[in-house]
Amino acid sequence: MKDFIYSYPTKVYFGEKAAGKALPAELAKIGKTVMLAYGGGSVKRSGVYDEICGYLKDAGKEIVDFSGIMPNPTYKKVKEGAALAREKGVDFILAVGGGSVIDCCKIVAAQAVTDQDIWEMEFKDHVYPTDFLPMGAVVTASGTGAEMNNGAVITNEDTNEKAGVLGAYASFAVLDPAYTMSLPAKQVISGAFDTLSHSMETYLGSPRDITLSDEIAEAVMRNVIRNIRVLLTDMNNWEARSELMWASAMAENGILKIGKVTDFQAHQIEHQLGAYTDCNHGQGLAVIHPVLYRHMYKDGVKQFARMAEKVWEIPAEGKSQEELAKEGIQALADFIQEIGLPSTFTEMGITDKSVLKKVADTCNLTAGCCKKLSREEVLEILEECW
Ligand code: NZQ
Ligand code: ZN
User: Is 280 in the pocket of ligand 1 (CB under 6 A)?
Assistant: First the structure.
């Protein structure tokens, strides 16, 4: 096991009416001017916006609205938020939304307190921000686990990069499954698949012998698969939605990563696909995963075989590790079809095939992947996804 230090800065308020417990307590600790950040308007339609404004007003806060944070948030939007935060003298940022809103706010929190350009600071100088406006998160779409980490995935339209930028941690996160109930079924499923992807990509990193983190990941993966299946017959099932919401946070709160170097090759490819096509994150992952895994499993056959047995519950008896690994990948591909996620880029509505080479040429090749992929092989993988 790799050495580690573990401590967590985010206090989680989970469950029904969690905002009513969290906000009065947390708002008492912060300054007067609160930036209320949200997306394209779902929070207004669902009533969440009015509820949160009520708590803010009860606490005597002045509200600065920062709206229109788009799925796959752009760096331009980050700059807009940072300028607004400075102009209005914002003391605290409250992100209300899914991964996109929360991620955008993590970097607004950093950019608002420095004159240096955060993108240049991180990607040119390799220096990471340490000062932030404080922030909190109210989750309305689960899957990314963004509420419990300080990594933000931001699209820089000038450079055609969708990259992980380090920003602020939320000091608290509100996870009320009721706030996700208005989410369209398609987004619920693609979000839950994102959680499965995070768990698989962590599990398939190194060390390649089983660790406690991996055994916890197996439980998270089984839980996600089981609860997605519950939702297929009962989309608003409270228990399943609750389990998936916590699984989402569990996959990205560092617990599964303890002592590990993660893989995350599928994510790196999907992020660049997102940079060029603005596609849905969970859907892109669903297409890439089985194809990528068919290309790499031989280099991590023991891990793939164990995942087949422990997660997909495929009997091992009489099978070689390779056979078992292949059956596990097929079970994943079948599951993706069963839950209505796409299996090809064309099914996702991507029409411009020329993006594939751009993605292959620009995506990060991760150190934690069991196979050292060449750019030619990534292009082959992407072409198989077509
Ligand atoms: O913008 P609004 O109107 O709010 O609509 C959103 C958006 O269109 C809608 N939505 C959210 N909550 C809703 C709702 N609609 C109805 N009812 C609700 N309660 O859902 C749509 C998608 O929202 P978005 O936040 O984009 O989805 P998600 O949570 O999947 O986040 C995706 C982003 O997170 C990044 C992805 O790359 C992508 O940019 N990721 C962040 C990670 C992290 N920080 O740890 C890890 C992930 O791997 C991922 O890369
Ligand atoms: Zn993801």
Answer: no
Tell how far the Cα of 364 is from the centroid of ligand 2, in angstroms: 15
Nearest CA to ligand 1 atom 14: 183
Identify whether 207 is preceded by a cis peptide bond (ω within 30 of 0).
yes
Question: CB-based burial of residue 3 (10 Å sphere; 0-12 exposed, 13-18 middle, 19+ buried)?
Answer: exposed
- Cα torsion 206, 207, 208, 209: sign: negative
Residue with tokens 């992020």: 271
Q: Give the pLDDT confidence of 194-219 residue by residue, as tens digits.
A: 999 999 999 999 999 999 999 999 99
Q: Where are the alpha helices (DSSP H) in 89-203?
A: 99-111, 118-123, 185-203
How many angstroms separate the CA atoms of 198 and 296, rounded? 17
**Report field, pTM of the whole predicted structure over 0.90:** yes
300 touches ligand 1 (CB under 6 Å): no
Whether 223 lines ligand 1, by a CB cut-off of 6 Å, is: no
Per residue in 70-102, pLDDT (tens digit) is 999 999 999 999 999 999 999 999 999 999 999
Closest ligand by atom to 194 CA: 2
Cβ pair 103, 73 in contact under 8 A: yes
What does the pLDDT look like over 318-357, one tens digit per residue?
A: 999 999 999 999 999 999 999 999 999 999 999 999 999 9
